[in-house]
Amino acid sequence: MSDNLSVSLDGTRCKSYGICVSVMPDVFDTPPGSPTAVLLRDTVDADEREDLEEAARVCPAQAIALNSGPRP
Amino acid sequence: MTGGFERVVVVGASAAGLSAADGLREAGFTGSITVLGAELHQPYDRPTMSKALLVAEEDPQLLELRSPERIEANRLDLRLGHAAAGLDVDRRYVVTTYGEALPWDAVVIACGSRPREMRSLAGEVLPALRTPEDLRVLREAAARYGEMTMIGSGFIGLEVAAGLVARGVAVTVLDALPLPLEPVLGTELATHLRDLHTARGVRFRSAVAVASVTGQPGAYEVRLTDGSVHRTPFVLTGIGAEPAVDWLAGSGIEVTGGIVTDAAGRTNVPGVWAAGDVAAFHHPLLGQRVRVEHWTHAVEQGRHIGLNIARGETTPYQGVPYFWTDQYGMRFQCYGRRRAGDRSLVVEGSLDAGEFLVLFGHAGEFHAAFACGHVRSLRDYRKLLARGGTWDEALALARTNNPVLDTTVSCTDRKERTTHEAA
C-alpha cells in the first residue's frame, strides 16, 4: 500500500452535484459555469483517505474513483 | 466470518440497500447477498429526477447508481422487479412477491419510502414524483398544459416548481404551512426562499389546506379549507413520504413512524437491521429518534450497517445529516439539523447578496450550518458538528473566517438593516 492515493473523476458521469466539494474543498471544485466538477489535485495523502473515500461514496453520480499507489 | 452466517438478504436496491451490500463486502463478508429491487429499472440516481432530468430538453436518461460490472464484482444477486411481501422472523425467510421464500442469516431492510398519497374524491391517486414513470407523466403534463399546481412545498415541490417555472410553466404552490420549509429552515431563510420563487413568478397560496380534489388531468378543481376553489389542468402532490412498511404487518418488527432501530441499525428482531429512510433510528448527535430522508444518509448509514453485520459489531452510526437542493441554478447545502426555537446567525455573505452561510443553534448548542455558495467553509462546520462542537466553537470558527463578524445580528436584523440602508 502506497502512502499516496490518486483520485480520478469521470467527466461523463459527473453532474456537478458538488457534494464532494463540501467534503474535500481542497481536492474538488465546481467552477461557475462548468458542467462538471474539477480536480484541484489528483493525489491525496494517506491521512485524507477517509474523507476521499466518503466523497466517492456519497457522489450520486458515482463519478469519483480512488487508486492506490503511484499514478500509472 | 463465523460459521453458519452465510446468507444476507437486502430488501431494497437503491442508495441504502446497495451501500449495505458494499459495506458487507468491504468488511470481508464472503457469503451470498441477495438484493431485492421492487422496480424493474437498473438501480438509478433518484436525486436527479426532481433536479436536472425534470428540466432536460431531451428525453431524460437515468443515471446508473451502480454499473453492472460493479454489481457483478460485488457478487450481488440483484433481483429487479422482486419486492418483499413478507418477513418470517421465526423460520427466517423473506417472502417475495414471486412467492419465493429466501432464507437468511441477516436481513437489511432498505426499502425506502413512497410519496404520501392524496386521492381525488373519485378515489384516483393524484400524481407525485418518485419514479421514472412519474417523471415522464410530469414532463408530458408540463409540456401539454403549460400550467400546473403543486400541492405541498417541501424540497421536492420547490425543486419541481423552480424547474418548471424555468421552462415557462405557470406554477401555483398550495401549502398548509405559512412559509415553505419553515420547520427546516426557520422563518428568515424560508422567507428568503419563498421570495426567490415569487420573484420568478411562482404563485403561493400558503397557510391554507386542501379540502378535496375533483377532476382528472386537464381539468382539476381543488377545494380549499377557506372555501375557495382553485382550478388547474394538472396537480402534483409533494406532501412528504411514508416508510414502505406495509409488507411487515404482523411480522413482529416494531414500526413506529418507521422501522424502529437502535443507533447501530438493529431492529427489535435479532438479525434484522434497517437502513436509510425506512428506519427511525436513535441518532446520538440529534439526541432523539429520527427518520432521516436524505440521500447521503442512506448511503453512509447503509454502508455502516453492512460493516456492522460483517464484523459482528454494533457500532452506533453518527454521521452528520446532510442535504442539498437545487433551485434556479443555486445550490443550497445543509449539514446538521435545525431545531425549533433555534437562533440563526449569518456568518458569511448575506441573504440579499444571494450567497451566505447561516448557523443555527440554541442555548450554547450548535445544530446546523446552511449555505448557498461558501462551500469551502462548510467543511469546517461539518467537522465541528460531527464532534458535537458548541455554539461558541462555531462562533470562534466564524471569526477566523470573518474577523469583523458581528455575532449579535440575526438573519432578520441583517435583512431589515440592509433594507433600511437601501431605503
TrEMBL record, chain A:
List the protein's name: Ferredoxin
Pfam families, alphabetically? Fer4_15
Q: What cofactor does this protein call for?
A: [3Fe-4S] cluster
Q: Which organism is it from?
A: Streptomyces yaanensis
Question: What are the alphabetically sorted keywords of the record?
Answer: 3Fe-4S, Electron transport, Iron, Iron-sulfur, Metal-binding, Transport
SUPFAM superfamilies with a match to the protein in the record: 4Fe-4S ferredoxins
What does this chain do? Answer: Ferredoxins are iron-sulfur proteins that transfer electrons in a wide variety of metabolic reactions.
TrEMBL record, chain B:
Looking at the record, the residues that make up the FAD/NAD(P)-binding domain are: 7-302
Reductase C-terminal domain: residues covered: 322-395
Q: Where is the signal peptide?
A: none
Keyword list (alphabetical) reads: FAD, Flavoprotein, Oxidoreductase
The yes or no answer to whether the keyword Zinc is present is no
Q: Which cofactor does it need?
A: FAD
Any Pfam family: Reductase_C
Return the InterPro entries for the record: FAD-oxidoreductase/Apoptosis, FAD/NAD-bd_sf, FAD/NAD-binding_dom, FAD/NAD-linked_Rdtase_dimer_sf, Reductase_C
What this protein is called in its record is: NAD(P)/FAD-dependent oxidoreductase
